[in-house]
Design goal:
The chain is α/β, with parallel strands linked by helices. It is built from eleven helices and eight strands. Its EC number is 5.2.1.1.
Length: about 260
């Protein structure tokens, strides 16, 4: 039985803000990703910046062929993030796929549904981050196999970096990469860093390296750039957040595009 309650119209429509939050970042992440949302919630999201996520299909193992198969999903994935509304940045969260697909191809795919939005990839953000830190000689640590690591080595060499040491852990499942213990990430990082290098890059958005980047810097005396640290830094700077946050690592004290 319907209760006899009188429902009264308010008499006017509510006032609407232009946006619920001032800035909004879209993330395109793998269906298997355990780490990116957690890192962005910790480093990026705030009462000013909203982070909105779309997941796309991905099937392990991590091989160049499987990574390339994500390219057709990027346009739809971007379009599902607040459809018909503008974003301040869209970040595609896969480092190894960014190498295989290519930064420009990723940008074009995202622009097909989100025209003109700044596009961030872990590879392009890492390059900007290393440049901001003045790094020209680098060491690289990846969780991948040699087959998947090789294109990444070529990517950085082609952009003018000298690689003093390249270490890979031999994993092929990104869910296992997400389970590498932070203490072990730090231990492998210390081993991977060549004394001649200006900085260390730790690849893979699945790896929980951003949470120990500042610790590795304190232990080694060298700057550390990780995939999620670099993309978080890039997205914050694109949203006009220029605060220095040294507790997250040296990169978070630098302006975007410096160097």
């Amino acid at each position: 039985m319907t209760a006899e309650i009188k429902i009264i119209p308010a008499g006017r429509l509510p006032r609407l803000d232009d946006r619920p939050l001032e800035k909004r970042i879209g993330l395109i992440i793998l269906a298997t990703d355990h780490t990116t949302e957690v890192d962005f919630r910790r480093m990026v999201a705030s009462d000013r910046i909203g982070v909105y996520v779309s997941r796309i299909h991905y099937a392990n193992p991590v091989t160049p062929e499987n990574l390339l198969e994500m390219q057709p999903s990027l346009t739809e994935g971007a379009g599902l993030i607040l459809p018909d509304e503008t974003l301040d940045a869209v970040m595609y969260s896969c480092t190894s796929a960014s190498v295989v697909i290519g930064d420009r191809n990723i940008e074009a795919a995202i622009h097909a549904s989100k025209p003109g939005v700044p596009v961030v990839t872990p590879t392009a953000a890492a390059v900007k981050g290393l440049q901001a830190l003045g790094a020209k000689r680098i060491s690289i640590l990846t969780p991948y196999t040699i087959e998947t690591s090789r294109p990444m080595a070529d990517y950085f060499v082609d952009l003018g970096f000298t690689i003093d040491r390249f270490t890979c852990l031999g994993l092929s499942d990104d869910r296992e990469m997400a389970r590498i213990a932070p203490d072990d990430i730090a231990a492998f990082a210390r081993q991977a860093l060549d004394p001649q290098s200006d900085a260390l890059f730790i690849s893979c958005t699945a790896v929980r390296a951003a949470e120990v980047a500042a610790r590795i810097e304190a232990e080694t005396g060298k700057p550390v750039v990780t995939s999620n640290l670099a993309t978080a830094w890039a997205c914050l700077r694109l949203c006009g957040d220029d605060r220095a946050r040294p507790e997250l690592g040296q990169l978070m004290t630098r302006p975007y595009g410096e160097g």
